[in-house]
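Table S5 (text form). Sequence records supplied for joint modeling of the three-component complex.
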Amino acid sequence: MSAVMIANGALLAVAFALVFGGAATALTGANLVKRVAGVIAALTGAMLGLATLGASAAMLIAAVAIALAYCALGTSLIVRFQESYGAIETQAIDDGDRSDEPQEPRT
Amino acid sequence: MSAVLDLLRAHAPMAALALLFGGAAVALMTPHGRTSWVLALIAMAAAAAVAADMGWRLLAAGGALETSALLAIDGVAAFSAPLIAVLMFLALLAGGSTLADKPKRAQAYVVALHLAVAAGWVGALFARDLIGIVVSVHAAWLATAALVAVSAHRGALNGALRMVMSGGAGAAFMLLGAALVIYATGSSAVAGAADAMISAPRMATLGYVLLIAPLLLMAGAAPLHAWAGPAYGRSDAGLVLAVASISALAVVTRLAAVAATTTAPGLADGVAAALVCAGVASVLIGSLQAVGAVNVRRLVAYAGAAQAGCVLVAIALESPAGLAAALVQLLAWGVGAFALLAGIAASRDTTLAALDGLGRRSPLAGIAITIGALSFMGAPLTLGFLGRWRLIEAGVGAGWWWATGAAIITSLAAVFYGGRLIERLYFRRATEASNFDVDAWRLARAPVMVAAILAVACGVAPAWMLDLAQRAAMLALGLTT
Amino acid sequence: MSPEFALAALLGAPLLQALLVLALSRPPGLRDLVHVLGSGAVAALAGYLVHAVSQSASPRIVLANPLPNVELAFSAEPLGTLAAAVVGGLGFLHAIHTSGMVRAIDQKAPARLMAFSALTTAAAMAVMFSANLFSFFVAYQALALAAFPLVAHVGDDEARTSARLFLAMLLGASIALLLPAMIWTYTLSGTLEFQVGGVLAGRIDLLSANALLVLFVLGIAAAAAPPMHRWLTMSFTAPYPALVKVQALAVLPAGGVGLLKVFAYVFGPALIAEETGRQILAAQILLGLCGVIMCAAAVIALSKTDIRERLAYSLWAQALAAIIGGLLAAPAGLFAAALQIVATSCAATTLLMAVGTTAAVTGRNNVADYPGLGRVMPWTFAGFAIACASIIGMPPFSGAWSKLWLITASASTGVIWAAGLVGVAAVLTFAHLGPLAANAFAGRAPTDAFKRPDGASILLVAPVILGAAATLGLLVLADPLASFLSPVWTPR
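The corresponding C-alpha cell record, covering 1080 residues in total, follows.
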C-alpha cells in the first residue's frame, strides 16, 4: 500500500467524519447558528471527499455553489427567526411552536 | 408558428426547462403580483404541454429516446416529468388563492419560486450527469424551502429551517455518493453504470445508497421526515411539498433502475435492500403517525410517508412490473394528495375539528377530500386501488408476499384516518372551530380540485395509463417493448 | 324490456331514487312518494329478473375494465336474483314503513335517511348481482360506505362509536383479508369470475384452500362470522328504519349471499378434501365455531333487555346458521343456506318493523314492557308473533323449512353434530323470542300504552302484516325455489 493511498484513505475518513459530524450538528444543534455551521462543515467534508476521489472541477464548483446557497438561505432564516420568535435557540422556537399549535377540542 | 412548434418538439427537454427558467425571469421582472402570476401560469402551462407531448411521443407513440450533452431522457423521466409539470401548474394555479396574503414585494418572488421548483425537479429527471441531478435536486429543494418560509404563519419557518438543515446535510451525502459512484464506475453519466465494468462494486453500492438516502428524506419517507410535520402543518405550500415528494421518488426510481441494470455483483441487491428497509419503515411509521394526527395537513404528510413507503417497496422489486407499479403509485399519491390538500385549504384552520360540516358548506372541497381519502385507502375504481393492486401483483410475481402486507397496512391505516375525515365532513355540524375561507380568490383552487377528482376517477378506465407506466418501466430498465 | 336493461335499471334505480329524494325533500309527501315509488320500481325489476332467470336468461352487463382481464360486471344468476327479489320486495314494504316512521317519531333529516337507505339498497343489489370477485369487492365496499351514514344517523357519541366500528370492521376486514384472498385466487386460477363448479376446483392444494377459506369467511365481515360480528351487535343504536336496512335488508343478507357465492362459485368442490371425502379442515373448524357461537348468541340474546339488542344477537345466530349451510359444501346445504338467508330476511324485516311500530307509538324498547301490548296492537303483534315463530323455526313458517333442510344436509354430509347444534339453537331462540310473543298477548293490556291516542297509522301496520304474509308465502314456494336455485350447483 503506497503512501498516497494511505493519505487518500485518511483524507476520505476525515471527509466522512466531517460529513457525519456536520450532519449531526445540522439536525440536532442547540441553536441555529450552530446548525448552519454544521451544514457548512458537512458540505466542506463533502468537498474534501470529492477532491480525494478525484472529482472533476465542475463537480467541485457545483459543491461550492450548493454550499453557498444553503449557507445563504440558512443565514436568512436565522434573521427571520430572530424577528418572528425573538430567539434563535431551538428549544425556545419549539416551545413557541407548541403554544401556536391548537389542541383538538374534545367532542 | 409550426416551425417554432417543431423546434420545441425536437428539443423538448431543453425547451421545457427554458420555458420554466424564462418564465421565472419574466415573473421576477413583473412588478405586479397578479400579472406575474398570470405570466408564470402561461409559462408553466407551455412547459407542461411540451413535457406531456414529449412523454406521449416516447411512451404511447414509441418514439426514440433523446440524449444531448447535458440532458437525457429515460422511461422514468418521460412518465414523471409531464406529471410533475402538470402538478406544478396546478400548484401555481392554486397558489393564486393565497398570493394576496403575502407582502406585495414578495409576490413576484413567490411566483418565480414555483417555476424554479418545477425547473429543478424536471431538470433532475432530465439531467444526463449525476452532478446535474445533485445540483437540480438541491435547487428545487431550496426553492421549496423558501416557499415554505414565506408562508403567512410563523410556524412554517420551523419547517423551512428543518428542510434547509436536512437538505444541507443531504447535499453533503449526495455529493459524496455521486463522487463514489463516478469513482467506481468511471463515468459521470447517470446511465453510465449500466454498461460500465465496475471495479469497486461495494463502493458503488455505498455511493448509490448515499445518493438515494437524501432523496428519501425529500420524499418525506419516515423516519427521515422530521421536516414534514411543521412544513406541511403550518405552511400554505402543501401542494409544492407534495410535488417535491413525488419528484424525489421519481429520481430514486431513475437511479434504482440504473442500479438494477448493472452487472456488478451485489449492487442491485444492496440498493434493493436499502429501499425495502426504508419502504417498510416508512409504511409502518407513516401509518401510525397518520392515524394519530390531529392537524389535518400533518395528517396528509404522514399519510404521504406511508404512500411513499409503498412506492419504495415497489421500486425495490427492480422489475418492469415493480417499476410500473411504482410509477402508477406515484401518480396515485400525487393526485390523491392534491385532492386532499386543495380540499383542506377550504378551511383556514388546520385542526381536524375545523373540517366539521365542510361537506355542506363547500361541496366541492368535501368531494375532493373524500375522493382523496378513498384513493389513499385504495378503494376500488380509484387510482389508489390501481397502485395497490399493481404493487401486490408485482410483489406476488416476485415471490415477495410480504409486500402485500405493506400495501394492506397502508390501506388499513387509511381506512382509519380517511374514515375520520369523511365523518367530520358529512356527519358533524360546523362548530366555532370551523373557519371556512370565503375569499373570492379561493376559486383558483376549484380547478385543482376538479382536476384531482377527475384524475382519481381515472381508476375506472386506466388501461392507457397502465400501458404508459409499463412502457416507461421497460424503457428505464433498457428493455425493448 | 330486455333482461340486461332490467338489470342495469335495477342497479341504477336506487341511485336515481336517492338523488330525487334529496332533491324533492319538501314537501314531505312528495319525498315519501318518491321513496316508495323508487323502492316499488326496484321490487318490480327484481321480480322481472326472477322471471327472466327462471326462463334460462342470464343477463350480464359490463360497466368498466379497471384492470386487464378484470371487469366491473354484474350478472343475474339464480342465487343473487332470488335474494335480490326477496330483499327488493321487502324493501318496498320497508319504504312504506319508513314513511310512517319518520312522521311518527319526527325523525331528524328524514330525506338523508331515505337517500342513504336507497344507496344501501343499490350497493346490496350490486353485491348480489356481482359477476366476479372484483365486482363483489367494489360493491361490498360501496355497501359499507353507504350503510355507514345509516348507523351514524342519530349523530350522538354512541352512534358515532358504533358507526366507526361498523366502517372499520367492514372495510378493514375487506382490505386486510378479502383483498389478499381475491388476489390469491387470481394468481391461482387466473380469473376472478364466479363460475358454477368453482374456479378453484382442481387448481388449489389443500393448505391454500384452508387458508383461503379462512380469509374469505372472515374477510366478508358482513356475513358476521365470529369474531367479525361486532358491527352487527353494536349497530342496534341506529334509528329503526336504518336498523331494518342494515340488519335485515342490506348488509347482513348481502354478506350472506356474498359468502354463499364464494362457496359455490369460487370454491365449489375445493371445499371437500379428496382423500377423506369430507369438508376440508378449515371448513370443519369454522363449522364447529359457528355452531357453538350460534348457540352462545342465542343465550346472550336471552340476557338482553333492550329488544333491539336482543334481536341483534338473535339475527346473528340466524346468520351463522346460513354460514353453516354453506360450509357443508353440499347442494342441500347451499339450498338450506339460501333459504335461511331469505327466510331470515323476511322474518327479521317483519320483526324489526313491528318493533319499530311499537317503539313509535308506545315509546317502549324494553322487553319487560312488552307484556299485554298485543292486546292493544293486535295487528302489529300478530305480525311480530309470526316473524318470531319463523325465526325460531316453528312449522309451518318459512324458517322451519330452512332449519329442516339444514339439519338434513348436516346429517347427509356426516356432520351430525352440526344438526344437533342447529336444533339446540332453535330451542334457545324459542327461549328468547317465544315467551316475548306469547306474553304480548297473554299479559294484561297496559292502560297507558300509546303516546298518542290515535295509535299506529296504517303506514306503520300494513307493512308488518304484509311482511308476515310473505313469511308464510315462502313456505309454499319452497319447491319452486329449489328448482330455481338448482343451477347454482349444477351447470345448465
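Note: Chain B has a mean pLDDT of 88.
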